Every structure is written in C-alpha cells, then in structure tokens.
C-alpha cells in the first residue's frame, strides 16, 4: 500500500491560513492534492490537520481527512516526522500498515505529479530508505561569507578561497516538496537527510520556498509564468 500524507497545521504565523489561502485561483493545498492524485502512485491520500476549517476545505475539494491531529502534534515545535509517524500508526490501526509513505507539503504549488512518480520509482530502484526532492545552490556555498559582531566580513570556508569556482563541489538543498520513505524507516525515526536517502534533483526554477508575503508574491508570479 502506498500512502500520501499531507501535513497541514492551522497555526501559520507569517502567512495566516497559508495552507488554504488562494494561490493562482485555488486553495494552496489543492495543488498538492491534485499532484498526488495525478501521480497515480497512491492507494490513499490523506491530510493530517488539527484545524476544522482546513479539514472542511479539503473535504470540499474532494480530499480525505480521516482524523483531526491531536493538539500536542500541532504546535510550533512538532517536527514533520512526528506527524508522519502518528498518521502511519493511525492507518495501521484503522486500515492497514502502508509499505511506502510519501510526505507531501501542503505549500508546494510547483510540485509535479511526474516528480512524485519518479520519486516512488527511485525509492525502489535505489534501495534507499528515503527519497526526497532537492535542487542545487545557485552560488557556490564554499564562497559564503559571514558578518562578525563588529560587522566585518570573513569567509565561512577560508581554505576554499584559492580554488576556482568550476572546481568546487556542487552542493544541493532540500526542495521542500515531497519525501518518500518506507514505513519502517519513518517509524524508526531515522533522519531523512542521511546516507540512507537519495535525492531526485529538480531544476532550480521549479523550487520556491514560501515563508513570507514577499515569497508568496514571487512564487505566484513565477507559477503563472510557467503555466
């Protein structure tokens, strides 16, 4: 059984009601639900939320909210892993234990169904315990600088200063879209970002964090341009 879990907490601070705020004509979470459905990789797609309004919105969109998440798993300090483990255990008790579980973020409008499908295939082909979306940094991280308390500049990696840019190792970061994993790996609490994982690398133009109103505006403009 393949299970998709979309965490959607109600208490977003920087962008109120972020998960169901209208983005390009639809509630934000609807883009994630549709991508999950169109991937044709899931037996069930559920939303884990503590919020009644989000639950009602999801059900109106045709999504499934089989339970309301406990309040102790909906504060500012609860990690995604705790939310996924709770949903897996709920499924094991009320349906059956899933074999593969994909956490899909509710605020990932650039997520594509074929990327979800490729991630599922890569999980099997690679033998890894996790597969997640990633993209490369636009600028060599070895050239990063920091400001001292006196507002002076120093390099974070001064030993890399004399190396040509083209000879520096490329670095990647989490794209914040989806995380495939085997149920036993999720339940064990293994870290996703480790040697037990591999990454599906996406082009940078399809990756956008949306944490502030400025991020939202930029993402919506990019999304409309790509469409």
UniProtKB/TrEMBL annotation:
Transmembrane segments: none annotated. It comes from the Bacteria. Pfam families: CTP_transf_3 (PF02348). One of its GO terms (molecular function) is N-acylneuraminate cytidylyltransferase activity. PANTHER family: HAD SUPERFAMILY MEMBERS CMAS AND KDSC, N-ACYLNEURAMINATE CYTIDYLYLTRANSFERASE-RELATED. This is Putative polysaccharide biosynthesis protein. It comes from Rhizobium meliloti. The lineage of its organism: Bacteria, Pseudomonadati, Pseudomonadota, Alphaproteobacteria, Hyphomicrobiales.
């Amino acid at each position: 059984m393949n299970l998709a879990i979309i965490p959607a907490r109600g208490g977003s601070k920087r962008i109120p009601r972020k998960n169901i705020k209208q983005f390009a004509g639809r509630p934000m979470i609807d883009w994630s639900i549709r991508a999950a459905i169109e991937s044709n990789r899931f037996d069930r797609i559920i939303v884990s939320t503590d919020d009644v309004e989000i639950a009602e919105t999801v059900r109106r969109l045709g999504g499934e909210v089989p339970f309301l998440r406990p309040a102790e798993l909906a504060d500012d300090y609860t990690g995604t892993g705790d939310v996924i483990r709770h949903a897996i255990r709920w499924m094991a008790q009320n349906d059956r234990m899933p074999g593969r579980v994909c956490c899909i973020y509710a605020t990932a409008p650039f997520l594509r169904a074929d990327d979800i499908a490729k991630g599922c295939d890569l999980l099997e082909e690679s033998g890894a315990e996790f597969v997640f979306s990633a993209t490369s940094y636009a600028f060599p991280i070895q050239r990063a600088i920091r400001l001292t308390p006196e507002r002076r500049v120093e390099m974070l990696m001064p030993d890399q200063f004399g190396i040509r840019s083209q000879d520096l190792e490329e670095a990647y970061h989490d794209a914040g879209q989806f995380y495939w994993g085997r149920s036993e790996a999720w339940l064990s609490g293994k870290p996703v970002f480790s040697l037990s994982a591999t990454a599906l690398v996406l082009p940078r133009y399809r990756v956008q964090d949306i944490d502030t109103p400025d991020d939202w505006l930029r993402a919506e403009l990019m999304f409309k341009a790509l469409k």
